[in-house]
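In the design runs reported in the main text, the only information available to the sequence generator was the tokenized backbone. The following block is the verbatim input for one such run; it is reproduced so that readers can re-run the procedure and compare outputs position by position.
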């Protein structure tokens, strides 16, 4: 869906700049503490500015209806990119340098491996990511989805040989996603500005905090640093996705007049849809819990779906037909 959105997005001319490089700090804890401090400052700034934006939006009827229905408004977070000048330089580094000289060549080599082998590894990583999805579905109130997530994990870990084979999908236990950024959104946290981080997928400020929280629920972070697990998983996912959709990625790059804007808009639209789907799933779950449906019988002759009478016996049906 994201690739199709990117394929349809176009804007003004593509801006390019030279990416700045910085020397890595000697200790990962110092990096994490510095990053969290910067994000905390940004969060307080956003909280201070949110009151002014909310006051100007109260006159818009569509915004009010969206807030009343607990759904994100159509303009909520869309194209909110006050850090575009910095983001564009980081995007240049991610796309023109990291992607062209590392990820894309690695994806070409990876694509020569058997497809079943690549899919099995992707299944195993998805299965390993279960704690993040399970915890967030519980926090979002999507309890049936959380139960299905746990069932998927048990089936694929045992019968599917440590998640290498997606047996649960064959049993019609389909994949669904959830993350901490979604959970923040369901509790009313705004997205904040769009944010591009080196070597990581597109984010906004809300999803950046969610991404950091998700990294501590990643089992890989229990053996390596959370930052190392984040960068490693992100790189592996990008390489695998690019290997599976090499031609489509190339077509998007060739057809987009402004690739930065296309990636940004595609990400924001996709996140909005995921959040709306999560809200609908939560509401349906609680509706089923609070209003359990009564068994209904349908008359084979009258076709009344609201009939609460049991179906007639076979002899009665034959006599009525005669």
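Verbatim output:
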């Amino acid at each position: 869906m994201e690739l199709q959105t990117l394929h349809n997005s176009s804007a003004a001319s593509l801006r390019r700049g030279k990416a700045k490089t910085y020397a890595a700090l000697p200790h990962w804890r110092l990096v994490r503490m510095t990053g969290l401090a910067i994000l905390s400052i940004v969060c307080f700034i956003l909280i201070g500015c949110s009151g002014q934006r909310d006051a100007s939006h109260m006159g818009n009827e569509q915004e009010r209806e969206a807030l009343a229905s607990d759904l994100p408004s159509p303009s909520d977070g869309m194209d909110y990119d006050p850090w575009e000048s910095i983001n564009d330089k980081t995007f240049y580094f991610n796309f023109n340098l990291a992607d062209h000289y590392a990820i894309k060549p690695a994806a070409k080599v990876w694509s020569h491996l058997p497809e079943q082998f690549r899919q099995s590894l992707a299944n195993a990583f998805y299965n390993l990511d279960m704690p993040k999805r399970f915890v967030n579905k519980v926090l979002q109130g999507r309890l049936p989805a959380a139960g299905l997530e746990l069932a998927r994990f048990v089936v694929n870990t045992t019968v599917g040989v440590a998640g290498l084979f997606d047996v649960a999908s064959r049993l019609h236990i389909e994949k669904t996603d959830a993350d901490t950024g979604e959970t923040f959104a369901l509790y009313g946290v705004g997205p904040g500005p769009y944010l591009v981080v080196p070597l990581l997928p597109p984010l906004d400020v809300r999803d950046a905090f969610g991404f950091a929280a998700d990294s501590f629920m990643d089992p890989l972070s229990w053996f390596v640093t959370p930052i190392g697990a984040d960068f490693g998983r992100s790189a592996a996912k990008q390489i695998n996705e690019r290997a599976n959709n090499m031609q489509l990625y190339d077509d998007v790059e060739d057809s987009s007049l402004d690739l930065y804007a296309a990636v940004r808009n595609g990400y924001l639209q996709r996140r909005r849809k995921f959040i709306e789907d999560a809200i609908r799933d939560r509401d349906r779950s609680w509706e089923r819990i609070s209003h359990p449906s009564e068994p209904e019988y349908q008359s084979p002759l009258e076709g009344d779906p609201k009939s609460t009478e049991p179906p007639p016996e076979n002899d009665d049906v034959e006599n009525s037909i005669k």
